[in-house]
Design brief:
The structure holds two protein chains of two kinds. In chain A, 13% of the residues lie in helices and 41% in strands. By secondary structure, chain A is mostly beta strands. The two termini of chain A are 20 Å apart. A four-stranded mixed sheet of chain B has the order 1-4-2-3. In chain B, helix 3 packs across helix 4. The chains are: A mainly beta, B alpha+beta.
């Protein structure tokens, strides 16, 4: 991955050695040939000529896959050219002897409506079988996202795990002073590219959450002088209030299908969890215990919700069915525990624990137990999962200055890695990936 | 505890009221049935017509701080319990608000920066609600009060040290002009029907 350049270099060397040994090099690494995508007819589009887009897409696929351990991509330079017709029916003898275990083909074609078709295939050169294929009709300027999704499909075909390449991260960029902060919602690709701001800092905003498909952002805003939920498209357009309510609402999170949003609403000192359709409408109340129930997060099958509640006297983590039934506590490991987030593979819940002196990121089983702490900063909080459930991104606050920054830590443990952002950052949310 | 606070509060309030010749604020009588409603643009509701010259909000806030001792009450970590000291401050604030019925108050709850963000918002609201309920119990009309939680988004101190972060657990009474007051008071003829001959 981008954040471990040194290990990537080592990986590159071993991969080059492996490439000469043909096909499947290591026990878990496959060499993938990515020749440049042809086009049936070179047409000028908003995103450039289709022939050029074909070269750029193959380059993007290579650079995406180069960040993984499982795949070593080669090309597009130095590989033979082929016709769009061959993309769907490769001439296997022509690809023998290039030292690859698998082959990526595809083509770019201008459409009559101004958009482009991007089609990509992955073939196993040993068994001469197609492993996967993808086709997209996208705006010509959006060719990069098509390339990310092709790379993700290839990664999934090889490893059976979701690829991160088309995933995005939204967070709160914090400038200004601590007592007069300026907060803007920012969004970027998972690798830090294509960074932009979605709100302009006139109003304090917190907790942006990406929909699973990465197309929408729900967040909390002080617009109107009262914390309330708003939703917008992931390019900042279509910004609107989610609820017609005079009570304060916060802590939103999408359901795995993106159709509903769980959140908290506070009425007269009592905070409970509600669910509302992501198009708005009338919220359904799920909890009614006296006290504060907040930070809901759905299980990946959408059937359960984990949340935090102080009904026992301290903040602890609970699980309930998504209709509000069978609310039961799962955290018994000491301290006060908050902000639970269910992993996309369903196996773990990430949370923050106040130990009395600092706040740490931890993991536990959704059934309770198996608790372990992953970090030991002064204040590490707001966990968010990578789409492949391998990493937890979180916000780390420095003691003294109070400056926040994004970090990520492997579920296996180890030293957290810093995630570069242009400004101090808080509240990360990592999208899912579209399969 | 709350009941005792109430008794204490009402007792204090009674003393203060008699000592300063307090007169309950006269609400305008309800309109007679059939009376045409006021035209749009006219200030409406209690507090709409100030009994005297209107002072600027910062001046009034300074006055509140002097008369009530403070515009802020503080809390322990995770707590929303009003200490005896907080109750005394709020009782004095309630008197001030009753004497200034033409000013609204926004009760703004905060939590310290070492709470997680969602919980901080909920805790700020819970503290603000506790303060509002105390003020209402002390005689302040509910429509004069509104509550809002800032969570941990507006700390008072710049630095974050173990010694200082709890200062941010607080509720501040912030004065606001009633929204009607923001509209210019434009005397306009009432749209009465012409008398029929």
């Amino acid at each position: 991955m981008r954040f471990s350049k040194s290990s990537l270099l080592i990986l590159t060397f071993t991969a080059v050695l492996a490439a000469s040994a043909q096909a499947q090099s290591g026990p878990s690494q496959i060499v993938l040939a990515v020749p440049q995508f042809p086009t049936p007819k070179n047409v000028k589009t908003d995103g450039g000529e289709t022939g050029v887009i074909g070269i750029q897409i193959s380059q993007q696929i290579v650079s995406d896959l180069r960040t993984t351990r499982a795949i070593y991509p080669t090309g597009p330079d130095g590989l033979r050219h082929y016709t769009p017709t061959e993309a769907g029916a490769p001439l296997y003898p022509n690809w023998a002897g290039i030292g690859a275990g698998a082959l990526v083909t595809g083509y770019v074609q201008a459409r009559d409506d101004g958009r482009i078709n991007v089609v990509c295939y992955l073939y196993d050169l040993k068994t001469r079988r197609e492993m996967t294929r993808k086709g997209f009709a996208v705006e010509a300027t959006e060719w990069k996202r098509a390339a990310h999704r092709c790379a993700g499909a290839f990664y999934t075909a090889v490893t059976k795990r979701p690829g991160l390449f088309d995933s995005r991260i939204t967070y709160v960029a914090a400038t200004g002073t601590r007592t007069q902060p300026v907060k803007r919602i920012a969004i970027m690709n998972w690798d830090g590219t294509d960074h932009s701001y979605l709100t302009q800092g006139g109003v304090t905003v917190t907790s942006p959450r990406l929909s699973p498909d990465g197309e929408h952002v729900v967040y909390m805003s002080f617009a109107g002088g009262m914390p309330n939920l708003r939703i917008m498209d992931a390019d900042g357009s279509n910004d609107r209030q989610l609820l017609q309510s005079t009570s304060m609402s916060f802590a939103p999170r999408f359901s795995p299908d993106g159709r509903s949003i769980a959140f908290s609403m506070a009425v007269d000192g009592n905070t409970d969890i509600y669910v509302v359709d992501s198009n708005g409408g009338y919220p359904r109340r799920l909890t009614s215990a006296p006290g504060i129930d907040t930070s809901p997060s759905f299980s990946p099958d959408g059937r359960q919700i984990t949340f935090e509640s102080d009904r026992s006297g301290t903040q602890q983590i609970y699980v309930m069915n998504s209709d509000g039934s069978i609310q039961h506590r799962i955290s018994f490991g000491g301290g006060s525990n908050s902000s639970p987030v269910w992993s996309p593979d369903g196996d773990r819940i990430a949370f923050s624990r106040w130990t009395g002196a600092n706040i740490a990121i931890g993991l536990m089983s959704p059934a309770g137990g198996d608790e372990k702490l992953l970090t030991s900063g002064w204040q590490d909080e707001a966990p968010s999962w990578s789409p492949d459930s391998e990493w937890v991104m979180f916000q780390r606050t420095q003691q003294g200055t109070g400056t926040g920054s994004l970090h990520m830590v492997s579920v296996g443990g180890g030293e957290p890695k810093s995630v570069a952002t242009p400004q101090p950052a808080a509240d990360p949310s990592w999208s899912g990936v579209v399969q | 505890m709350i009941a005792r606070g109430l008794i204490l509060a009402s007792a204090l309030f009674a003393c203060a009221a008699s000592a300063q010749g307090y007169q309950p604020y006269p609400y305008p009588p309800p309109p007679a049935p059939g009376y045409p409603p006021p035209a749009p643009g006219y200030p409406q509701g209690p507090g709409a017509y100030p009994p005297g010259p209107v002072l600027a909000i910062p001046v009034l806030e300074q006055d509140l701080r002097v008369k009530a001792g403070s515009d802020t009450v503080r809390f322990g970590r995770d707590s929303y319990v009003l200490t005896p000291q907080s109750q005394a401050t709020l009782t004095a604030q309630a008197q001030w608000l009753i004497q200034h019925p033409y000013v609204n108050a926004s009760i703004e709850g905060h939590a310290d920066v070492r709470q997680t963000r969602d919980y901080a918002l909920a805790l700020g609201e819970r503290r603000a609600a506790a303060v509002r309920n105390y003020l209402i119990a002390s005689g302040v009309p509910p429509e004069q009060l509104q509550i809002v939680s800032w969570g941990r988004e507006r700390p008072t101190s710049e630095a974050v040290h173990d010694a200082t972060w709890l200062q941010n657990s607080r509720v501040v009474t912030v004065l606001k002009q009633p929204s009607q007051q923001l509209q210019p008071w434009m005397p306009q003829p009432l749209p009465l029907p012409l008398p029929q001959q």
